Amino acid sequence: MENIANTAAAFRLTSEQLQDISQAMCRKIKEGLDEDGGEIKAIPAYLQQPAQGLKGRVLIVDIGGTNVRAAIVELFPDGTCEVKAGPLKDHIPSGRQGKPFSSQEFFAFQAKLALQLNPEPNLPVGYCFSYPAQSTPDSDASLIHWTKDIHVTNVEGRPVGKLLGEAFADLGYQTGKITVLNDTVAALLAGAGAHAQEFDKFIGLIAGTGTNMAGFVKVSPCNKLGALPWNKSTMAVNLESGNFTPPYLNAYDDLMDSQMDMPGRQRFEKALSGYYLPFLYAQACPEDKSFDPYEGSSVLTAKRDEENDEIAEAILTRSADLIAAGLAGFIKALGNEGHFCIAAEGSRYWADPLLAPYVQELLPKLVGPQVTFKIIKVDNANLLGAAYAALSHN
User: Fold this and answer.
1) 199 in helix, strand or coil?
2) pLDDT confidence of residue 217
3) How far is residue 111's CA from residue 325's CA, in Å, rounded to a whole number?
4) Pairing label, strands 201-207, 338-345
5) In b/e form, how buried is each residue of 83-95, taking b as 16+ CB within 10 angstroms?
6) Does an H or E element contain 237, and which?
7) Residues 28/246, Cβ–Cβ less than 8 Å
8) Is 3 buried (19+), middle (13-18) or exposed (0-12) by CB count in 10 A?
9) Which one of 35, 154, 300, 390 has the largest count of C-beta atoms within 10 Å of its C-beta?
């Protein structure tokens, strides 16, 4: 029992430590907004808050850490949307656990799923691509590197929107303009478009297979943003905050990191997101031979809730602590005042019944009374956000 208590204690964070983590996140965000090459990439998305009155029909392709979805979405001037066809969903068939997956197979798989919707020709495409990618002013984005233990050959450094368009063309379908955006930016746009009248600041949060944050940042104080071909006062920025290395990681984090993809990178993501938490538990409890980390983080919540497993509880609680501290760090970087809409997406955030209320209670203690906020779930956020992006660029 003492060993269990000691292992669980390695994952406990004090209030002072959480403040340290939030301040470190704030510093790294500001560094990333000023120059390239930092721990937090702060990637410009070349998108602004959605204009009111956007309307039209869009073909959506949404690839996440585990699944691909496709849908045809109609956006109406009042900010609502209707899914006209789909969404169809399929599991990414390979690319993980050492199974090879070529770029041709990867993009053809997505295009074939979308064409099952029988889209009319030349629809604009909103391509929600949930991996670190460098957005470009022409609305495409080049993959920086794979995350979430996905590996597809011959994609890094190449424009993924162009590759998807070529896959559609090979199958005989001509798309309209393809607009690529990160899933976190899609959540941000969905929250901002649907709740523009209620809030003055917006954040998109992903806490699922992986983790990330995005927000609208004032261009003028940021050296990097100010040098871009962009004439608006604010721009959506994809932080790629999963690459943040928070203080107070422990020996189990280090051991798991050394054995997973990208050692030394994505340390924040590896400490809190759904794909990695079961592997962290496996490191902390190597004697539990029946535990299969590939079954996902729902097994941890079951251990906590049904078996009163103290180590599972500590790992899941720290995950929630880190989500709140990360949000606090971003809010501080954005000025630490205002009325925030936080559009949260991901199974880690919403599938664990204890996580959302925990973050709701902890976050005010980290940011203070000058900040008010509401954490919301937008229905079909990726689809809605991708539609906003596609119609903004169309």
Assistant:
1) coil
2) 92
3) 38
4) parallel
5) bebbbeeeebebb
6) strand 234-238
7) no
8) exposed
9) 390
* pLDDT one-digit tens code per residue, 311-362: 999 999 999 999 999 999 999 999 999 999 999 999 999 999 999 999 999 9
- Amino acid of residue 140: D
16 token code pair: 């002072």
- Tell me how far apart the alpha carbons of residues 238 and 210 are, in angstroms, rounded to a whole number: 14
Quote the CA–CA distance of 365 and 118 in Å, as a whole number.
50
**Taking the domains of the chain in order of start, what are their residue ranges?**
56-184+381-393
- The DSSP line for 5-22 is HHHHHTT---HHHHHHHH
Alpha-carbon span 26 to 325, nearest angstrom:
10
The CATH number fitting domain 56-184+381-393, selected from 3.40.50.2000, 3.30.420.40, 3.40.50.620, 3.40.50.300: 3.30.420.40
Supply the pTM of this predicted model: 0.90
Per-residue tokens: 106: 């990867």
Query: How far apart, in whole angstroms, are the C-alpha atoms of residue 148 and residue 269?
Result: 9
pLDDT of 13 > 50? The answer is yes
Alpha-carbon torsion 342, 343, 347, 353, what sign? positive
Torsion angle of the four alpha carbons 255, 259, 264, 270, in this order, in degrees rounded to the nearest 10: -80
What H or E segment, with its residue span, contains residue 350?
helix 347-351
Which candidate, 310, 313, 326, places its Cα nearest to that of 247? 326
At residue 134, φ and ψ (nearest 5 deg) are -85, 110
